[in-house]
Amino acid sequence: MRPGPAIRAICRAIGIVVTLAGLRAEDCRDVLPEISQHTDIKMRHVAELIV
């Protein structure tokens, strides 16, 4: 089964943040939910904004 569009966007956003910020993927997985919580924007929308 292929992952849905939200998961693909989140994975792409993680890759972009890893590349631009020089973070490890494990650290970046904490960044997206934190941004989501502080801005009250769903994580998939945060990811779509990054991508």
Short summary of the structure?
With about 50 residues, the protein is mostly helical. The chain has helices at about 5-20, 25-40, 45-50.
List the helices and strands and how they pair.
Layout: H1 5-21, H2 25-39, H3 43-50
Describe this structure in words.
It contains three helices and no strands. It is mostly helical and 51 residues long. The protein has a single domain, classed as Arc Repressor Mutant, subunit A. Helix 1 (5-21) crosses helix 3. The longest helix is centred in the first third of the chain and has 17 residues, at 5-21. It is globular. The termini are far apart. The mean pLDDT is 89.
CATH class: Mainly Alpha
| Class derived from helix and strand content | mainly alpha
First-residue to last-residue Cα separation: 23 Å
> How many separate structural domains?
1
Tell me the strand percentage band: under 5%
Shape: globular
The overall strand count is: 0
Low-confidence stretches: none
What value does the Rg take, in angstroms?
A: 10 Å
Describe the sheet with the most strands. none
The percentage helix is: over 70%
Count of discrete alpha- or pi-helical segments spanning 4 or more residues:
3
Q: Which architecture per CATH?
A: Orthogonal Bundle
Average pLDDT reading:
89
